[in-house]
Amino acid sequence: MSDWTEKYRPRSLSAIRGNNKARDQFREWAESWDDHGDAIIVYGSPGVGKTSAAHALANDMGWETVELNASDQRTASVIERFAGRAAMNATLGGSSKGESGRQLIVLDEADNIHGNYDRGGARAITKLVKEAGQPMVLIANEFYEMSRGLRNACESIEFRDVSARSIVPVLRDICRQEGIEYQSEALQRIADANSGDLRGAVNDLQAAAEGRDEITEESVATSDRDRSVGIFEFLDQVLKEESAQQALYTSYDVDETPDDLTKWVEDNMLDVYEGEEIARAYEFLANADRWLGRVRASQDYSYWRYAGDNLAAGVAAARDGTKGGWTRYGRPQFWRSKDKTGDEVARRVAESSGVSMSIARRRIVPYLSVMTHHCKPRDLTVAMAAYYEFEEKHVAHVTGSGESTNKVQSIVEDAGELRGEAMEAHSGGAFAGTPSGGSDGDAEAAGGSDSADGVESTDDPDGTDSAAEAAEVDDSASESAADGGDADEADSDDGQSGLTDFF
Amino acid sequence: MFQAIVSASTLRDALDSVSVLVDECKIRLNEDELAIRAVDPANVGMVDLTLDAAAFESYEADGGVIGVNLSRLEDIAGMANTGDLVHLELDEETRKLHIQIEGLSYTLALIDPDSIRQEPDIPDLDLPATIVVEGTHLDRGIKAADMVSDHIGLRVDEADETFHIEAEGDTDDVDLELGRDDLIDLSAGPADSLFSLDYLKDMNKAIPSDAEVTVELGEEFPVKLHYEFGEGMGHVTYMLAPRIQSD
């Protein structure tokens, strides 16, 4: 038996059920395409007839179609090869008759362009949409899953869920054409079970009718179709409406890991909960987090269930009664540290001080920041930049001054010089004879020690605890620098003589 | 019933000319010839190929249709040396094609012909200009155009009786002018159309450089390219829809 969703697919737009307004808009777009030449995005839940509408439209307009869907790989080159070629050329059939040679390019599941598998695909589509010489329809489930550039370049039409009232007549029609007896209640039940999904309803009808010539209420499968729950719906249930048990059941249907769910709930809970509720909810979130920590440490993902219990049932139980109203839920803000410069600063500090990056980040960098706030005092900042080999952006990061300012740039330049001098001073004359002249060695060594003085002299401005500790840090820093220098000297002493020794 | 013996080079030439447009195609096994007609997925380019029974060492068929995966078949044909003979035999029971090359036997699973894209009906075109040109000249024009642009203009100058292959890039232009002396034949008419270079490049790959290519051209109409291979017993016609003129 052939697939009924295929067999009864509407051949003309006028046969599309539900969504009359969207349908008319769609037709108007096609009829006025010669004037505007824009692509269109058709979006809505699965099974409401988006793809059918696109093909029916092409049929009505007498256009041929080229379809590219998610079963094809959709990298930039594939899209250019198929859709791109179709979009830039007339069709053979049309142009041979001397007509326009129009064809409709249907890009199904345009919101599912996979980042890696379909490398470059999303960008290629955006480019194509702007250049296309043929009408293009992009079909998507989630309008906002597509990039903003793409959305702005296209018109858009939403196909809403098809109401059970519109689904029943379709099912009745099919039954008549197939010569199947039916009870109205049975069809009603199929329609209700497939809330909004016309294709699902037709599939269920076919399944129920398989091998029978009558559909009764009993023959309709009683189980509901699995449906994934969106994160916003889930948050509403946990934070506002449902019992702890129901919230937990809902959490099973959400397509997010407990890690992410915890973040979502935590970030949005404060917008809804008040007073005591907050304290109780945090208790549960803390528990959830602890379990997530155990998952991470033990790699035993069965602990996820306890995190889930806490973040869904626990947080829902922390609520007094139910809440109403609408809340603008936000995406959690702390997905990952993107502070590359901060990481780099910590790494350089950690390397030269012989401590871990987290110590550098928490125990050293903050003090450096206070001591060299806005690059004052300047000589200290120069010394710091020289010692840790900071570049402009690092100095800017630590001091809070702008990266492109003259101040920061001159500090980095001076620091470079200082480093060069220190290197010569500690080289024991190994570089003597170079243009800069080893004869100045003494003077430069003095300069080097000056900078060390500079470091120490900075305790004075801030006489606080932090300064004291900072001084310690810097002391050890300058000591280690000195050590380094000694070591260098020792190195150059043993075995290898300097050239100057012979002059 | 289908049984044939053909030289590997003839088979390869035939397959190459089709595989530049499609990955799968239907092969019609007519009594006096083997025929392939296919349209590319974007509905822009078409190939129409016939290989006379005389091009085969031996040929027996009764008008069946088979669907093949071209890249597979090309790979197999690639296993043969130029002078080798390829034996083809269709097993009606299992719907498989048995291929034998010098002791190597390969059984190729066929594709249901109904699942392969249907070719549209193309009305007979009466194109005003006909140019007969050597494959090398066409190749030269296409290579030059490819340097500056992604589309190519084919034009006949009626007054001067010249054929132009030209391309306009963002900054650079090229124009290959072929006069009567360069062309094998020319019957001038109003003809000026723009085409995608992507397609012409691919088609050009399949055209032997020593072939005589007959170009039929109109104004904003598809172009037809005819050429022969396999000692004149294989005929290929390409048809390519024009590019949409952007303003």
UniProtKB/TrEMBL annotation, chain A:
Residues 36-163 form the AAA+ ATPase domain. Pfam families: AAA, RCF1-5-like_lid. One of its GO terms (biological process) is DNA replication. This is Replication factor C large subunit. It comes from Haloprofundus marisrubri. Residues 444-454 have a biased composition (Low complexity). Residues 427-503 are annotated as: Disordered. CDD domains: AAA, HLD_clamp_RFC. ATP binds at residues 44-51. The gene is rfcL. Transmembrane segments: none annotated. Belongs to the activator 1 small subunits family. RfcL subfamily. Part of the RFC clamp loader complex which loads the PCNA sliding clamp onto DNA. The keyword Flavoprotein does not apply. Keywords: ATP-binding, DNA replication, Nucleotide-binding. NCBIfam families: PRK04195.1-4, PRK04195.1-5, PRK04195.2-1. SMART domains: AAA (SM00382). The keyword Nucleotide-binding applies.
Automatic annotation (TrEMBL), chain B:
Pfam families: PCNA_C, PCNA_N. It comes from the Archaea. HAMAP family: DNApol_clamp_arch. Sliding clamp subunit. Responsible for tethering the catalytic subunit of DNA polymerase to DNA during high-speed replication. Sliding clamp subunit that acts as a moving platform for DNA processing. Responsible for tethering the catalytic subunit of DNA polymerase and other proteins to DNA during high-speed replication. Belongs to the PCNA family. PANTHER family: PROLIFERATING CELL NUCLEAR ANTIGEN. Homotrimer. The subunits circularize to form a toroid; DNA passes through its center. Replication factor C (RFC) is required to load the toroid on the DNA. This is DNA polymerase sliding clamp.
